[in-house]
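Hey team,

Filing this mostly as a record. A colleague (T.K.) asked me to run one chain through the structure pipeline before their review meeting, and I want the input and output archived in the tracker in case anyone asks later how it was produced. No errors, nothing strange. Just documentation.

Input sequence:
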Amino acid sequence: MPISVGMIVGSLRQAAYTRFLERAAMELAPASWKTTDIGIGDLPLYNQDLETATPPPAWTTFRTAMAQVDAVLIITPEYNRGMPGALKNAFDVGSRPWGKSIWNGKPSAVLSLTPGALGAMSAHQQVRHTLSVLNSPTMPGPEVYLHSAASLFDEGGKLKSAETRDLIGKFLGHFEVWIGRFAALK
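Output structure:
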């Protein structure tokens, strides 16, 4: 049976470098994976007042999609030295209602990417910290912080750097091993 891996992109922009990286990760994923893009752009901001017997439909759709995957790969940019607000909102929506967090026990990994020089390191660490609080076992290493995003992709959004393709492929292989460590706990 294939390993179901959900991919969440922290940027909402369709032509975002992180979206291009998600496509590359889907192409480079191990053959044993079934990958799914799990969108976060339609999630209303988390407000406990909306956590009723009929929460917003987008919340239910998101929670259901996340419940159906074995693991999640977060691909994040960095905004103002932090994770994007939409990504933090997805963590909040998925962690509720109390006792029904979709993050609990779900293996995760993080890739970060920025046009700048630091590879979105601050956002990457914030995401890792949040996942740890949500009891999502996050792959400790290798860590991948990609910088100079504009130079990594061609005009069509394809990853053109053979070195980066190799790095991502190896990272995904490590993630597959990490996911396997938790399969028996289901």
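Quick notes for T.K.: The first helix runs from residue 17 to 28. The longest strand covers residues 3-9.
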